[in-house]
Write a structure and sequence with these properties.
Blueprint: H1 4-12, H2 17-23, H3 36-42, H4 47-51, H5 54-61, H6 66-69, H7 74-89, E1 95-100, E2 103-107, H8 110-117, H9 120-132, E3 138-145, E4 148-155, H10 159-164, H11 174-191, H12 193-199, H13 203-213, H14 220-231, H15 235-253, H16 268-287, H17 291-294
Antiparallel strand pairs: 1-2, 3-4
Helix pairs in contact: 5-7, 7-9, 7-16, 8-16, 11-12, 11-15, 11-16, 13-14, 13-15, 14-15, 15-16
Length: 300
């Protein structure tokens, strides 16, 4: 079990002063008279006690939450959403599972999801992931080609463009790009699977994605072959297969020892679908009413 103070420290690195003032307001575990960071550190259970506070949840996601939710950072809103998704999974008999664009089917393997999200470091991993896509990076790089320097555009929300960076970044930066590819595959298949299915990947883009997953170990060709078969009729399955592969490659290439919160990516090749399903619960239960505030995607 991870100590409460370790988890609390991880969260405090992201929470703003406004977030802390909101958490420590009257009725939420503290008063405005004390130092909010000390209040959070010293409360029994640390940050988890605040995230599990019913008044905090109701202020952000209950009736009339539109004013309060604009006060806090996306990171805090996602932290509360993930914590309460874990709470609701504790008594759920089933969860909706993506079964195609606009279609959901009941999934009864809730105990596996319950076990996954019971780990505070896994919850923190999901919160960081969601928050990282509230403000995405895009831009361009100058790339040397046979015809001279050319500008190559990239967006953190476009897996094909992001995968192209593996061909041009220095070797030392490839683990970070691979990890980010895994993050994007998890984010898109968990939060926006309908977008992925409707957008799809043409033959050229699919080839680029498969090349970006190839060459990262002895079993890479077998993995990409299965992904290609899945991609014939299901872009979501393709991206999920590749996401597992990208996480596996990143975890092998990142220097050891990894910080505890980063080491979670080593679990993702085996637990990708569990993480994806938990993100789906978070998104459909709490985030979609405000999704245009949280995330932006180009039209499919």
């Amino acid at each position: 079990m991870v100590p409460d103070d370790v988890v609390t420290t991880l969260y405090l690195e992201h929470l703003t002063e406004r977030d802390l003032a909101f958490l420590c307001g009257p009725g939420r575990g503290g008063t405005f008279g004390g130092d909010p960071r000390s209040l959070v550190r010293n409360r029994r259970g640390g940050i988890e006690g605040f995230l599990a506070n019913r008044e905090v949840f109701d202020a952000l996601f209950g009736a009339g939450q539109s004013r309060e939710v604009m006060v806090v950072s996306p990171f805090l809103a996602f932290a509360v959403a993930v914590r309460w998704a874990a709470h609701e999974l504790g008594s759920a008999a089933f969860v909706p599972e993506w079964a195609g664009a606009g279609r959901r089917a009941p999934l009864f393997d809730v105990p596996r999801l319950r076990e996954f999200v019971s780990d505070p470091l896994r919850r923190f991993f999901l919160v960081e992931l969601l928050a990282s896509y509230a403000r995405v990076a895009s831009g361009s790089l100058l790339v040397a080609t046979r015809r001279g320097l050319r500008r190559r555009r990239f967006s953190e929300l476009d897996p094909v463009q992001l995968a192209g960076l593996l061909e041009v970044v220095p070797k030392a930066e490839r683990p970070g790009v691979l990890r980010r590819l895994g993050d994007l595959a998890l984010f898109l298949t968990g939060v926006f699977p309908d977008y992925v299915a409707r957008r799809g990947f043409g033959p050229v883009d699919q080839g680029r994605l498969l090349r970006a997953a190839d060459g990262w170990g002895e079993t890479s060709r077998g993995v990409t072959a299965r992904a290609a078969r899945a991609g014939d009729d299901d872009a979501v399955a393709l991206l999920a297969q590749l996401g597992r592969r990208w996480y596996q490659a990143a975890s092998r290439l990142l220097p050891s020892p990894l910080p505890a919160n980063v080491a979670v990516i080593g679990e993702m090749p085996e637990r990708f679908n569990d993480a994806r399903r938990v993100l789906s619960v978070v998104a459909e239960r709490f985030l979609f009413p405000q999704r245009e505030r949280w995330f932006g995607l180009p039209p499919a």
